[in-house]
Amino acid sequence: MRYEAAGLTVLYVLTFLIVLPVLCSTWRYSVYYRGGESPDENDPSVLSYFSDVMTSVNDETDERPVFLLVTIVTVRREGHFYLSRVVARLHQLLSAYNGGNGNDGAIRAMICNVDRDPELHQEALDLQTIYPVVRRDVQQQPISYNDLMDKEKDDYIFCLNASQHYHEQISIKKRQSSGTYYILVLEDDAVPLDDLLPVTRRFIDYLKMRRSDDDRDFFYVKLYHPERLQNYWQPEPWRIAEWIAVSVLSVFLLQVVLGLRLRRHSLWIIYFMALTECLGRPHLLQFKRWMFARLASPAAAYNLLAATECCTPAMLFSNTSAYLASAFLSSITCKRGYAKDTALYLYARQSGRQAFVVEPNLVQHVGRVSTLRFN
Ligand SMILES: *[C@@H]1O[C@H](CO)[C@@H](O)[C@H](O)[C@H]1NC(C)=O
Ligand SMILES: *[C@@H]1O[C@H](CO)[C@@H](O)[C@H](O)[C@H]1NC(C)=O
């Protein structure tokens, strides 16, 4: 007994004061993160990607119906090539996806230029050769906004409507009925990760299947939630349950695998709770994804959970919910403390519509400073 207490003390000191501070100093979401090792923001290889790429000529000849439209909302960001990075990555993923032999639909993309002065957004103008660009002309904007949050919201409405309109045009051109389709709205600093398209597809199929039960569409699915809000120390009951479950399981495995006969169970459970929180839950989610990729398929590591408030870098809507969202947003005024993300979240709760979040994230949020605020 006394040995166990001494051993535990040594273990706590070793773990939290010596091993973790050294091991995790470059782990971005751990409590020991000391900065450094940030990915190169203005990776010049992005620009060379476009010089190698043939513009999307085969889009026009693709006869499959478009079940998903990816719309990138963009404004000027001096000194950064966020948009190019997003478009390059998306282009890679889309080419692979559409080139696959699925007959059940294609994915298309467009860029929505909502800069105050769209003519000055040179990066978006240059990318017209890759994806079609729609823009919100100066005449369509009020002369001034009381609050930037409200401009952000109007931009979003414009892009949602433009997406619906563009999908309609494609369908007419192909002489197909548009049917149910989906719109994924990405902000221009949300770089797609490898699993984005297959996992989105999987959840679309899942939600479609579920829908036949009660005939009500989901309102939105968030494909990104800020990592800093993904930790255990958050007031979400299911996450606290997960925290305890993971810790209890770890103690159990320790006993079984190492054949230890532990007595001070509560201290061991607290040890693992502290350990997982200090490592950072986003890292645990990455580890889970890595495990699933080896044991099953990476897509199996993603979960659909009830939506949490905050942030709209990557939002999935159905054609019906996109209509609903733009109609709702058109009826409100946004201000500090009531931005579009909060408004949508509250609306979903009040109207009893289902909103989800996917975990782990399917995009990487690279814009440390958004044009408007910290995000
Ligand atoms: C969305 O698609 C469904 C299925 O085709 C259709 O019935 C519905 O009217 C569409 N919704 C809107 C708002 O266009
Ligand atoms: C966008 O569509 C919604 C819903 O149809 C409508 O209420 C709103 O006026 C439209 N706004 C713009 C800017 O087109």
UniProtKB/TrEMBL annotation:
GO annotation (BP), single: GPI anchor biosynthetic process
**Any idea which UniProt keywords this protein has?**
Membrane, Transmembrane, Transmembrane helix
- Positions of transmembrane segments: 6-24
Q: Which CDD domains match?
A: PGAP4
Task: One GO cellular component term, please give it.
Answer: Golgi membrane
- The lineage's top-level taxon is Eukaryota
Q: Which GO terms describe its molecular function?
A: glycosyltransferase activity
Q: What is this protein called?
A: Transmembrane protein 246
State the organism of origin.
Daphnia sinensis
